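User: I'm curious whether this sequence folds into something compact or stays loose and floppy. Could you predict its structure so I can see for myself?
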Amino acid sequence: MDRLTFNATFIETGTESYRLARTKAQKNDAAKDTVTTPRSS
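Assistant: Here's the prediction. I'll summarize afterward.
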């Protein structure tokens, strides 16, 4: 990764990445869709 970013210019916009927001939403949706059943002892 060092070689890829060595000559790069980073611009921070102060906003949340749409990719990050989409991934978080997908994880939340997947967690809601997961059916949990109690274990019998």
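Summary: Helices lie at 2-5, 18-33. The mean pLDDT is 80.
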